[in-house]
Design a protein that fits this description.
alpha/beta, homotetramer, 13 helices, six-stranded parallel β-sheet
């Protein structure tokens, strides 16, 4: 029998709770032994809800008091580098939520730390573990639709992210905090890196939601040109109100593949023929990607048990950050931006 | 150029209006030259709406005054035999709505008349002309799903049929007036005749709708055993309120085929994530089978132009009547009924 | 923190492996500490695959050597009573696969044993824990579609059950081994007990599969009349080859609710316009009901942790057995059978 | 009774045949009395197939020999202006296929001619007559999804257009010949004019298909910014091989609306659980928009009968041409292009 992996959960907010729930109920090979969050009330509630024995203000305290094998970092993006580096330094494997970091220098520092201390790094691209996305990727790689020519990926979310996550002064805004997954998915499905990016944004609800945020946008369309010659589209709407909507579509030389649907559950109801059929929509991201979260965390735990490199790591995380930076520069400067402007070299 | 077929429409009620609309707008090779209905106001409205030049109380008058090639009979079932026989006697081709007649003797008399006067007879089984039903039948006949083992067909309709059509003293009730199509479809898809029938009925809304009708039912489930050994199911609900619902499913030794869906239109709307996705349902039978009606009437017209025997004729109509009689006897006597009890011989 | 529930898995066959996988990977609050199966090679493979520490020929040996809280019984139906009774006698909570037993006397004996020894009993009706079935039941109970008038439930499975499970001399055949869930689901959704049952069966592949089994059937359609006046349908096809197909539909006075679909995954592919769109189908029952299995076993474990009565117990199991017995008598005697003939009283 | 409208069909190619079929079979209020096409064999076949009495090399000949009320122009784009102007001059109403013309000056000349001679002009935007598109537009206009924020529209077609239609030296290429409808649909659904356009194109199959065509592309993604602030996307793939794929999606402040689907027919087949479910896809544009073609031509005929201005006229046609010109300029110059650069003023 393999040894259960002991985890320190860092962050007791929305993502921290989601991952704690996934591990505590459905990843039997992992166990959360400690919780870290500076806000005591939030921390206490999460610890109680998921039966986590120890909880602390800081990772330093947890490192001092409890034995564990790995950290799962779900705190705001600006904290990713210091926390990941500290964990790595203490020999803890690192599961890091997306976006990996604010810029490429931070990505590089994180990758250097995990390499130096020989710990595993996984970035939270759960779509890479979501059964229908995995099946699509496998079918594309098997050549079923031929060479990919065009890829589309969207994330439309019902609620506003926290304030820091939609302000370009403290984060990279929606393109990073909501659409990170689309950057990763389009690159994954296309099997090629981005060459050039053009972005249009719109602000429809900003006056109501964010009176003082410069460059706030709640709608974004990114036009991608890949190194392969292929085209790509990323679409973001947040808040969209109608549900959590994450789908993708790839057109290859030989065919099309669609991934995901708006349907949240195989239930159809009709009680009024003038209204029509009603089907549950996926309401939230925890519902939409429940298997993605379970499988990515199970994968992380299994990689630790078997000393294997996780599938979605620093390279993937860094590319998504580079895309976000190019996309943001594009709408600020109202022109297409080449990745080489961001990556240098 | 072929000569446009001149039609006398008999019956200006719901079905008469539906067929007049189909011919006047979308069957360019036919033309309604006369309308017959004893109710003057109904007749006048229908004649005006569809630009029909002549209208009469009786078929006799129409025969006397106007030249035409064919009749389309949409009047109540008990009138089918006398009208069809009179039309045939005058050399008019006959399109006859389902159910063909009240009993097998009437069916036989209609078939004898059209044979004697060498006119064409088509029975209004429009599912045999509805593209998805036709495609399914062709795939079954081509052996795609192997020998059919089980067939299911349902018709659930939103509104009550007219009083005469739900009273066993004046018609054969819902099994005939609503589910005639299912009798025909199950036999068509199974490629075999019924051997034995067992029927359960229920009456949920009868107290409100039909206080004085004995044996009224608004739900019916018929269990069929075919000569081939296959099984069948007919399901009827009327009034069901939620829309017009007509689907079928066949399971063969090698696979399954499903025909139809509740979706009425390729539109999906969501404005409330707690409610979910909304898709129009087919509200009414004219919508649901719009192509079936156009194609069956175009087929009738083309058969006349080319002197060809129509695809759905007296034999099909008679079998459906036989099934209805067996199904009704079954629930009245609470036992399985063999078709040979109905067919004799 | 709640204490993890220690489980002895009884049966290392298909169902035993499925449940072992569910618990070992995804029910973190339970732990399989022992495995019982008389076939050593099967047992060894399952124990290895799921990291189960101890394994034994018999439950007696397990009881003697290992401490545990509960058994999960996945062995053939005829063994259910002796194993369940022995476990109960030793104070172990009992999770029992469907069908509960071969006859009502065995059901009664199991219920008496768990009552006497004050242990919990759950019967493996995982549809009662499958999200879309649960959602449908809640919507029906909330009155969304009004009083249920008609309920349809089908289970069509791709592979033949083991020989004992399709022979009426050693089991109750397909109606029990495949369609037990449909008996339970129709009764659950209708909110009423069966009054009368009529069954038609067909044998299409028997000559190839089962030359020597009397009364073998591979297709079954059951027509149900409920105490409430409602109608029901159970459909079974096994082996059907095309996938694992389990759906339900309920029509109430105010509307319709459909549960389940053939679609196995939100992926659509098209590479040939003459063939059309391809969508994965659910291939197997473990895939189809993956959440049902996880949630029913998590429910069992949580009930033990919190000393709560499980939702699907002996009463539900016994009713399904009664339905099976009536349905079987019906096709053997070619007549509708009242439940009172089976239940006596 | 209204007088049947007499039509001269100009062009006996793919679109001419499609419209001849629609009128001859399903637009009973119209009648094709003459066919014009300079290629005699094509003309003869079309005339025979649809029973058209007279056919000619040129419109001049038809005007000279036959009486008619209107022309339906389906010839290549460069011929639109001279033919439309000649027809108008002779008092014939004009139905003109999309794209309206090659440039804005031609559009203006056509609009001036129909105005001068007081004839009706309809441009062939059949999506404006396709039931699901109409229903969506009505729901958007009724405010159901709030102010539109983002609109997406795609046309992916299976076959290459004729050579002239994909060469920028003789047409405006795919953006015009395939995606004209998307220009119109996005503007219609957004309820606003284009402000700015950015286009990326790709050429995957050009080497095989078009060795000598400069700037050939078979994939295009257009990013639109509307005057309203809204965003838009047009996607084109041609040839795509997998079917005829035309869908749209609009996200408003309050919700989402999706229009169209890949499903071609309500038939689902499964015979191999490893392959999965098979559903017919729409194979061709005549199938996909069969109702759009019937209804737009019926609308044209009814407008003539009732002296009403058609819904999709010169203004709509001209805007689509302006969008095409901006989109083409964008990919040639690799920058966003403002509509004011095209429209002047």
């Amino acid at each position: 029998m393999k040894k259960q992996v002991r985890i320190c959960m860092i962050g007791a907010g929305r993502v921290g709770r989601n991952h704690s729930n996934a591990i505590t109920r459905h990843v039997a090979q992992g166990k959360i032994v400690a919780l870290v969050d500076p806000m005591e009330s939030v921390r206490a509630e999460t610890a109680t809800d998921f039966g986590i024995e120890y909880s602390f203000d800081t990772l330093e305290q947890a490192l001092d008091k409890v034995e564990f094998d790995a950290v799962v970092i779900t705190t705001p993006t600006p904290t990713h580098l210091p926390i990941a580096a500290l964990a790595a330094e203490h020999g803890k494997h690192v599961f890091l939520e997306k976006p990996m970091a604010l810029n490429l220098a931070e990505c590089d520092a994180i990758m250097a730390a995990v390499e130096k201390y020989k710990v595993l790094l996984q970035v939270g691209f759960m779509r890479r573990f979501t059964p229908e996305f995995v099946a699509a990727a496998e079918r594309i790689e098997a050549g079923e639709i031929g060479t990919p020519m065009m890829v589309k990926s969207n994330t439309h979310g019902p609620g506003l992210p926290p304030l820091w996550a939609r302000d370009l002064r403290t984060s990279n805004g929606m393109l990073a905090e909501v659409n990170s997954h689309d950057w990763d998915t389009t690159r994954w499905f296309m099997g090629s890196d981005y060459l050039r990016v053009y972005t249009e944004v719109a602000n429809f609800k900003g006056a109501a939601n964010n009176p003082d945020i410069p460059h706030f946008y709640d709608n974004v369309l990114v036009n991608l040109k890949f190194e392969s010659g292929g085209l790509g589209l990323i679409s973001g709407v947040c808040p969209c109100g109608y549900g959590y909507d994450a789908r993708a579509e790839v057109i290859g030389e030989k065919g099309i593949i669609q991934v995901g649907s708006l349907n949240g559950q195989a239930v159809v109801v009709c009680t009024n023929r003038d209204q029509g059929l009603i089907t549950p929509i996926t309401r939230t991201w925890p519902e939409r990607f429940i298997w993605g979260y379970i499988y990515e965390l199970e994968h992380f735990v299994n990689c630790i048990q078997t000393e294997t490199t996780p599938k979605a790591g620093g390279v993937e995380g860094r590319w998504a950050v580079a895309g976000v930076l190019a996309g943001t520069k594009s709408f600020l400067e109202e022109r297409p931006v080449y990745l080489k402007e961001i990556l240098g070299g």
